[in-house]
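Subject: for your reference before the review

Hello V.,

The reviewers asked for a structural picture of the protein, and I figured it would be easier to keep everything in one thread rather than splitting it across files. Below is the amino acid sequence we used in the manuscript, unchanged from the supplementary table.
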Amino acid sequence: MPKLPFLRSKDEKRKKVEKIEKKGEEELTLENLFEEEITFYHIQRARGVTYANIGGNYSEVESYPLNPPWAYARIMFNRDDGSYIYALDEVRLSPLETRVYSILVNILIRELSPPPSGTDTMQYFKESAKGILKKYMIRLGRTPGVSWAKMMYYIERDVVGYGYIDSLMRDPNIEDISCDGVGKPIYVWHRKYESLPTNIKIDDEEALDSFLVKLSHMAGAHISVAFPIVDAILPGGHRLAGTFKKEVTTKGSSFTVRKFSEDPITLVDMIGWNNLSEEMSAYLWLMLEHKMTGLVLGVTGSGKTTSLNAIASLIRPSMKVVTIEDTPELRLPLENWVQLVTRQSYGIGSEKIGEINLFDLIKVSLRYRPDYIIVGEVRGEEAYSLMQAVATGHGGLTTLHAESVVQAINRLTSEPMNIPKSFVPFLNFAFVTKRQMIINPDGTFQIVRRITNLWEIYDYGDYVEIFRWDPNKDKFYFDISKSENLKKIAEMRGKDMEWIEKEIENRKLVLRYLRLEKKRFYLDIAKYVRMYYQNPEKLMSEVRGRLEGRVEGI
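And here is what came back from the structure prediction:
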């Protein structure tokens, strides 16, 4: 829950506020209000932040509202060098409005009481603030040059919102927001345009330091010269990482906010973007139904967690799932889901008082009798615990930094994970997701994410490629005859490979139907996965009926 900023010299400021309140019997005007102007402290200041005007040879490529009518995103293209910029078009306060705003914010800080436990902070603030400000606004009346609606927008933005980056936090297309230091533009990672500089720049060290302190307090964390690194969770599940002043960075405070999306990228989205094929998705669906264990591989920023979250939506709804993460990023459409999260140490220095790590959580997860254990990422000894769980019959999914199955197995069997080579057969499949450059029909280049390879794992050194992506044609190739896992599933079910082929075809059609009908929300996908198990004949009849006549139909 966001924490309201506090004031220094409270007695002095209280006297000034009370002095303003005593003017109640007089006619309250801007002039006598400014006589008692209160110093603006610990709220984002206009000083130190610049919003660059986009000049030069730029043209607008795309625009959309963020918080209308106050803030809009504009994607601008530089025709000279081919670069893009994310321009935040936000209404500005005039010098007069800035002074009034400063006073009103401090009055609010003086008069607002903390919200009751369990209360929606934003809603509480809006209702309380409107009542407090009303008496001042009524007395001031229609003041030329002052927009009270605009004032309210900025007060909400800066007191309980995210200040300079509040509008960026509202953009569902942005995955993370970062500031590399004083005088550098804030960067965003856009789902469509990838890394983009913005027109927002923090030029003042004190303003940047104060802003990072505010973010840390919102996350319930502490940052200072003594403890110059913060790694915490902001309200809404967004992850904050930051460094304070020049203690560990040369250009002053820096931060990155990795956003937690309320509307995550789903498997239907990924199929539509050709990140993977319908056949690969149907194959993975069968793997998860039969509690096969898999690795999601890739480098930083390749989409490992996104892919893990997307395929996990195919887990059978009746299964019990335990997820284990450092930061809660996974969002599963399952009822029987336990979400475990690590806890940092309360100790100072090398002491690890109260720390609960991935290793501890994997051990305790076995007491929950899960069908599937999903670990956000394995890096150390927790990999051994996960493999022990898999060896006892639990299904497992995790991500790992590696660019191929060979690299992945070598990492797992080396320090610090130290998985015995005899445990490798408990793994069943692995796929790698990469950022690739493709050439469009018009000759332009585009960076895309693709699951480039999927392997089945049989033993240490024994891996077979089942799916392969062709970068020249941007197509996926699948050889079902190579799959020992599918043969194993057929044997488990007392079926033949013809049944397997029919199952893959049916699941492909369900996924195609979801894509063409634009049923991309993760809860929609879960609904149809559940229907597939409850009444497959009825569902397939509906799917075939809707797909008939479509160009991309059956």
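For the response letter, the relevant points are probably these. Residues 121-140 form the longest helix (20 residues). Residues 1-46+93-164 form one domain.

Happy to draft the paragraph if you're swamped.

O.
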